[in-house]
Amino acid sequence: MDLDGSEQDPEVKEYSPVCVGREDDIKKSKRMTAVVHDREVVIFYHKGEYHGMDIRCYHSGGPLHLGEIEEFDGRPCIVCPWHKYKITLATGEGLYQSINPRDPSAKPEWCSKGVKQRIHTVTVNNGNIYVTLSKEPFKCDSDFYATGDFKVIQSSF
Ligand code: FES
């Protein structure tokens, strides 16, 4: 008998935590990729913290697991290897630099486009890493590449 009801309710199942690997391994490799309920994600281990997000960049589907992590405005970001978009690890915001065209002497400032990359929850239990997919109801730009025809991993059913 299914006590937690997850067999009857696909939504409950879709948002259940999935074990993606061992803490020891990601601490060495600093990143890992996984498929969580048919969604491709990347998990970064950076300065003692775990961050999970959709693996395909919101801009044009670039492979974020191949990008470098750099800090901009004091915020750790993954830099997409395709067109160098900067995405904050903690929140999935797209960062860009802007300058006031009416004030040429002004210094460029870092600004946020808002949350563009969907962030997923990473937890550790007994040395295992778990990812729980984001349930946030807003439409995130990275959803486009994580679902439907654009996702790389196709469902087997
Ligand atoms: Fe990532 Fe263009 S695909 S910056």
UniProtKB/TrEMBL annotation:
Source organism, top-level taxon: Eukaryota
Pfam families membership: Rieske_4 (PF22543)
GO molecular function terms listed in the Swiss-Prot or TrEMBL record: 2 iron, 2 sulfur cluster binding; metal ion binding
Boundaries of every Rieske domain copy: 17-131
Keywords: 2Fe-2S, Acetylation, Iron, Iron-sulfur, Metal-binding, Phosphoprotein, Repeat
Keyword Repeat tagged: yes
InterPro entries linked: Rieske_2Fe-2S, Rieske_2Fe-2S_sf, Sol_Rieske_ferrdox_dom
Cofactors: [2Fe-2S] cluster
Repeat among keywords: yes
PANTHER family for this protein: FERREDOXIN-RELATED (PTHR21496), RIESKE DOMAIN-CONTAINING PROTEIN (PTHR21496:SF0)
The name this protein goes by in its record: Rieske domain-containing protein
Source organism of the structure: Lynx canadensis (Canada lynx)
